[in-house]
Specification:
The protein is α/β, with parallel strands linked by helices. Helices cover 40% and strands 20% of the residues. The strands form 2 sheets. Strands 2-1-3-5-6-4 form a 6-stranded mixed beta sheet, with helices on both faces. The chain has a 6-stranded parallel beta sheet with strand order 9-8-7-10-11-12, sandwiched between helices. Helix 10 links the parallel strand 11 and strand 12. The longest helix has 14 residues. The chain binds NADP nicotinamide-adenine-dinucleotide phosphate.
Amino acid sequence: MKRACVIGWPIEHSRSPLIHGYWLKKYGIAGDYAKLAVHPADVKKFLRSLAANDLAGCNVTVPHKEAAFAIADFKDPSAIAVGAANTIWRDGDKIGCANTDTYGFMTHLTREAPQWLKADRPVAILGAGGAARAIAYGFLEAGVSDIRVFNRSRDRAEELAAHFGSRVRADDWVQFETSANPYSVVVNTTTLGMKSASDVDFDLNQLPADCVVADIVYVPLETGLLRRARARGLQTVDGLGMLLHQAVPGFEKWFGVKTEVTAELRALIEADIRGAS
Ligand SMILES: NC(=O)c1ccc[n+]([C@@H]2O[C@H](COP(=O)([O-])OP(=O)(O)OC[C@H]3O[C@@H](n4cnc5c(N)ncnc54)[C@H](OP(=O)(O)O)[C@@H]3O)[C@@H](O)[C@H]2O)c1
């Protein structure tokens, strides 16, 4: 039996076992995907013991993503670009890592709103944390030449811009409303909008009518930002699709099947999120 898991500290909130469990059943694979609480002090030991624990690999979530990246023997370009990993697999005695958040976000965005790519206009990223890095890399790979990053702590936005080069520019958080750019996409990568947090409260009236507004927060399923964007008639892209798509490459590495994000899977996770709210 092939086995994988997700590790984090804490880990109770993770929906990865539901997602991978759905695919294991759908494809009739004799496998197992568990969630394990691993203390930060034990991450290296855990990742070096995958074979001993009969694990093909694992997902890695907060706060282990940077540690997993540092420990891995070989690194996918996505992980190198972000400096953090969320997917680990065994290859002989070595372990490899990738950051599939880029794939997850870009796949969902491009499926839901393929027109964004044709617009050939600037994009705006709200936030400059780990997820913002993954998404900035995705936009760069897609050929976007003007990426604006607005972050509460300006120094972090500047670090991100310096890391990726001249196509990425840092701005103060409050400059978003006055930046008046004809963005093709605005994406919230901050923790604002989460169940217990306040919302992104920028005025959206200056955005062009064909601007796509995305949020990577997925609890609640529709954040305040997405609700206001929808009310303004803008196309919205939610965070749940990113979560589902980012799981696809890991499943293929561990269980050997390239899976699909189906409406049935989405409904399953939506129900779980609604049930927990
Ligand atoms: N849908 C998915 O699959 C997916 C994948 C990954 C992450 N996420 C979600 O994305 C969010 C960010 O994750 P992350 O790993 O990038 O976290 P992170 O590295 O801790 O970054 C957090 C970001 O939020 C900003 N922020 C926090 N509180 C704020 C406030 N009150 N006002 C303005 N900005 C604020 C931070 O700004 P400062 O730099 O100023 O602190 C920083 O830019 C989380 O909600 C996470 O659950 C979703």
